[in-house]
Amino acid sequence: MTASMRVAVAVAVAVLLAPMASVPAAAYGKAGAAAASPVTASPPKSLPRPAVARLVDLNSASRDDLQTLPGIDAAAAQRIVAARPYPSKAKLVAEQVISFEVFLSLKDRVVALQQPALRARQSPHGSRRP
Length: 130
Description:
Blueprint: H1 3-21, E1 56-57, H2 63-66, H3 74-82, H4 91-94, H5 100-106, E2 110-111, H6 119-122
Parallel strand pairs: 1-2
């Protein structure tokens, strides 16, 4: 079994077992669960929504946008721009543009979007229109 298959099985098991975690113990006939009185919870107070961080595209962001990332100063932003294009964000470390520690601090805030190729080149049917 390959690693990807193991991951898929683990995810499937987690999804199947998740509904069971929310079932009250009384539904399973646990001793003492039926004797406990039901708890009436007050409605939850509205919580502030967490700020949504905007993803920065390594292949098209300006130097100023790159400097908003943690650990990226003007020199690092210049190195990132000079080493473009990136097929993936992991290339930042593989090509030694930034350190692994800096990469760990910003990996969830960056993407490496690819420029779309011309559709006529990708289509085996040429430029036929429906």
